[in-house]
Design a protein that fits this description.
Elements (H helix, E strand, L loop, with lengths): L1 E5 L4 H12 L5 E4 L7 H6 L7 E4 L2 E4 L1 H11 L10 H37 L5 H22 L12 H15 L9 H11 L27
Parallel strand pairs: 1-2
Antiparallel strand pairs: 1-3, 3-4
Helix pairs in contact: 1-3, 1-6, 4-5, 4-6, 5-7
Length: 221
């Protein structure tokens, strides 16, 4: 059995779920709250980061380690191009979302709206939210530019970059904070990703006590 320890508001967890689904893998989910990890999971991965992949008595933790393992161990469904320059571009865009988008948007919006609520029982700081929404516009402009270049954001084929970007955006979209009508290229691209079978389970995610936006599950938004 392949077990993925995850949480629905972890974009890195969503990315790994999408990758595994695209590679037609069977796996079981175990949800852990990032702000309240069990002792068992803390011992498995002292860094406290999600996701964690467990199978055959082996443990792989860390977003990048799991991503590379899945890509190399399931070559029949490639999500990295063969060309070295194109491969570098996919990794660059992945890093943009996992680091830059995460630090400039996710931390300002998702942590304020969700993590603070459950971990600290606090309301979001309006100034922090405003800064996050301003940052989001900058990132949406960039996604709109990337989506206008080709069929997918790093080329003609679906790649790890698309799944990484969509994983991050999907959480912000759940909260209803993306003005899609202002970014038509990004909207067309995201609708294409959201319509893939691999995204079906992501759209079923439900964050306790928070109703998803009306666009979240709508494939024709």
């Amino acid at each position: 059995m392949v077990l993925l320890v995850h949480h629905s508001i972890s974009p890195q967890s969503r990315k790994i779920r999408l990758i595994m689904a695209e590679k037609k893998m069977l796996f079981v989910l175990k949800e852990e709250e990032p702000w309240n990890l069990s002792q068992e999971i803390s011992e498995i991965n002292p860094s406290g980061d999600l996701p964690i992949l467990i199978f055959d008595g082996k443990v792989i933790s860390g977003n990048y380690a799991i991503t590379e393992y899945l890509e190399e161990s399931n070559p029949q469904y490639k999500l990295l191009p063969e060309d070295l320059i194109q491969k570098a571009e996919v990794r660059r865009v992945m890093d943009w979302f996992d680091v830059k988008f995460y630090n400039e948007v996710y931390k300002y919006i998702v942590i304020e709206k969700i993590v603070k609520r459950f971990q600290y029982k606090q309301a979001p700081n309006s100034k922090v939210l405003k800064a996050g929404l301003n940052n989001l516009r900058y990132h949406m402009e960039y996604i709109d530019y990337l989506a206008d270049r080709d069929n997918y954001i790093t080329g003609k084929d679906l790649s790890l970059a698309d799944l990484t970007a969509a994983a991050h955006l999907s959480i912000v979209d759940y909260l209803g904070d993306i003005p899609w009508s202002e970014y038509p290229n990004a909207k067309i691209w995201y609708a294409k990703i959201k319509s893939r079978p691999s995204f079906k389970e992501i759209l079923k995610d439900n964050i306790r006590g928070i109703i998803p936006s009306k666009n979240y599950t709508n494939l024709d938004f």
